[in-house]
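STRUCTURE REQUEST FORM
Protein name: CGNR zinc finger domain-containing protein
Source organism: Sphaerisporangium rhizosphaerae
Requested output: structure tokens
Priority: standard
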Amino acid sequence: MDLTSYAELAVLLVNSDDTALDTLEGAARLLTEAGREEQAARLTRADLEVLRELRRELTAVFAAAARHDEDAAVDRLNALLVRHPVRPQISRHDGQRWHLHLTDAGRPSDEYAAGAVMGLTTLVTDLGVDRLGACGATPCRRVYLDTSSNRSRRYCSERCATRANVAAYRARRRHLSGHPA
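Status: completed
Returned output:
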């Protein structure tokens, strides 16, 4: 089982547009983007608030990790594990071998939450809290999972990395030329 793919559910939700969870259609698009078409088809209005609250809670986990406050990040993950228990099931589909799925029953929002929380928890326990990142490019607020071998990721995307590097280059040139911004 690739729990990084489950952890990506947390990243997708935290990085979702503020309006993505305003309507069932928006939430269904988000779940479909996450490869959760079956869950998207079963969404109800009750799921919207659960997903909104989950986004707030997961955002706080990433914020604690970005502040290098490991205890706060882990405390928040532990609280989420209690709130969103995992129901593992053995599954086989799409020509794959038997493997573990974290949940296949319950409300769509509960299934999404259990997968996202367990994925983040496994990533943190296997690789460390410092693998949860917040983009270093101003004013980006997106989060990411640092799965690099040397723990060097600082940006959510190549676009943000390029933008930050260009801004730093221009700032250095202004400084060297003696011209203030």
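Reviewer notes: DSSP finds seven helices and four strands in the chain. The longest helix spans residues 45-66.
Form closed.
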